[in-house]
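quick one, 119 residues, struct below
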Amino acid sequence: MNTSAITSKDTPTQEAPLILLSPCAPVMRLQLDSEGNARCPVCDENIGSQPSQWSAHLEVERAKLIKAIESVKDEHFGSRMSDDGLQSSATAHQTAHRKREQELVRIRANQQKRFESQN
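---
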């Protein structure tokens, strides 16, 4: 398995691998069009053959990913609205922890009652 990275002085070829993110990640080969220009594996858009084009496209994809992550965060944390607005994450965490502890105390008390009734 070839794990070398493409540098700006390298030219893309049919055999050029992408950078591995982890040792167990599969190796992806660059998809090239008939003119030898690379295609983005995420959006299948023609990137071009110049490193500056790759950098610009990478920044666009990075911005899209950041926007998508922020959107998911807003959807997830936006559903935790109280009457006064969004609770701080520390307060929400403490409240959830306190509820879990109370539930465990209730469960243990019920278990103890069942155990005592069996004896």
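Confidence is low (pLDDT under 50) at residues 1-15.
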